[in-house]
Amino acid sequence: MRPLALSQFTATSAIGRGLEQTLGALAARRGGLAPCAFETAALETCLGQVPGIDAVRLPGPLARYDCRNHRLALLGLEQDGFAETVRRCAARRGRERIGVVLGTSTSGMLETELAYRRRGPDGALPDTFDYAATHNPYAVAEFVRRVLGLEGPAAVISTACSSSAKAFGAAARMMASGLIDAAVVGGVDSLCLTTLYGFHALQLLARGPCRPFDAAREGISIGEGAAFALLEPLPRDAEPGTIALTGVGESSDAYHMSSPHPEGLGARAAMRQALSAAAVQPAQIDYINLHGTGTPSNDSAEAHAVAALFGRSVPASSTKGATGHALGAAGALEAVICALALRHGLMPGGLNTTAVDPDLPLAYLTENRPAALARVLTNSFGFGGSNCALLLERLGAERPHA
Amino acid sequence: MREPAAQPLGAYVRSIGVLGPGLADWPSAAAVLAGERPYVPAATAVPPPAALPPAERRRTGETVRLALAAGLEAVTRASADAQRLATVFASSGGDGVICDEICSTLASAHREISPTRFHNSVHNAASGYWSIALRAAAPSTSLCAYDGSFAAGLLEALTQMAATGEPVLLIAYETTYPEPLNAKRPLAGAFAVALLLEPRPAEGVCARLEAGLVREAPDALGQPALEALRAGVPAARSLPLLRLISRRDTGRVVLDYLADLRLAVTVIRCP
């Protein structure tokens, strides 16, 4: 594929608002997981909750979009001057030439959950409940499009936990076809009771903070987040240090709705495709940000998939021990973490993992490691066997290669 | 300033599947749309997905079954190899019955959700079951653009084909919500359409499509019951396109997409 510049990017999650806080938390190995104190949830688990969402106020004309997911989206857009950068890009390229492709798994579902508690005697939902502007998956793209004043094509990818990684692929294809000149991509997913009680029903919630790749891992910690990137064509004279998306790989497990293929066949196919789209060999990858949810079967499948392609020498870690699993936003959140890793030469060691599972054939990092990075891969896998891998590179960063 | 498109976004239609109220399959839908047969609306008859093993089959609801049935019709008509076929699933709302059950349970004192219902509640459930049923490991995406989900799916299928040069199966589908959600999101019925799209004029293709973004009003259908279906179900916003194809005609339609953006599709009769 033709490489695209991430000309601006930002992330908001349990470890911070914007890039500076996110990088600071990663560098200081400061996690954002805390015992569950969300809404009326009574579950023994930890959450990666973003502080301050309730205090966010939507601008008056967009009041009908008010819900936790869109408050989080707005909070995310306001960090690092992201919205301003997009508006300048729109003034330069034309508002109709910029697409919006975002990923979410549950969108504003929390609004529907709350509305069901306020059903009238006739069973009807309250008048104030606005399905189209809150719960429908597309609502977040429509909201972001309106906040940014864009008039190009838009869609929401909703493929569970691979959603916002796949949004990068869909937007890149729109750009390659000439339909648009630039795209706002990303993911927004926020806490709701459906995912908390749903993962609880599947017995996939860890009681303590999740411990990806630990021998004693027992499940996930659910998180939330908003992460965005502005994709633009890579200029011929791109400055050294520019972060570029150079490969996207997608596949289906065709195995089971909620369990990965045990040897990670689909995951392997997605990673291989991302490498081939970028014309990069496995040995040229410096770091892998793993999907690494912390469930016994997910981590095992991913480790085998990585080992099959890369051997066991490429340093790899999951940042979900810090942020929690932001579900539909995880792909974009971890793409931004990878962009930070490339820019600042930091491989973030996974948090909470004390004894790496000896059965997992992987060079799992439990401590931060500084290193000049040229190419990194990030994995996102979801229910339904939906897999996506993104390859990001730092321009002008050719490392001496053995 | 604008980069010109390398070539217009286009594809050849190799086969079609349709399942909707009073529309049992593509040949019967085509006869109705071409005006050869009257339209008699009736509840959509959704068959159980024979392609799935019994255990998986039992876990599927009407939404997944509807999407699979339309997709299977298109694949069967073309004798296509579904295992290697990339898919795009377009739907506004996913499974409303499951959503209602989960929200009712969460509003009750006992919040025990069924694990199967939870993993079936994801927007990409149809894609997941499709890949399991057909052993299809190719890339698959599931997307939403509210009432414009069909056009968004067609755009994704066309841009994907432009990038890979491989055929793509587009499946757009929608079922109705039970009350109380139905009052907030009323839909006219269960409807699904599947288009098997080819990058080249392969044997058996019936039309070439070329698509572009416009700001005109979307086309409506003259026949009131068909227009009610088009306006009442996001996946049925495809009907003006299907009508043009059914007439084995060359022409142009404007399909609903976003509030301020539409998709114009030129249909060129093949061969």
Give the key terms.
heterodimer, A: 402 residues, alpha/beta, Peroxisomal Thiolase, Chain A, domain 1, three-stranded mixed β-sheet, 12 helices, 17 strands, 21% strand, B: 271 residues, alpha+beta, eight-stranded mixed β-sheet, globular
Relevant CATH superfamily of chain B: Thiolase/Chalcone synthase
Order of helices and strands of chain B: EHHHEHHHEHEHEEHHEE
- The number of helical segments of chain B is 10
What distance lies between the first and last C-alpha atoms of chain B, to the nearest angstrom? 38 Å
The number of distinct helices of chain A, counting runs of at least 4 residues, comes to 12
What is the percentage of strand-forming residues of chain B?
15-25%
Short description:
The complex is a heterodimer of chains A (about 400) and B (about 270). Chain A is an alpha/beta fold and about 400 residues long. Helices cover about 30% and strands about 20% of the residues of chain A.
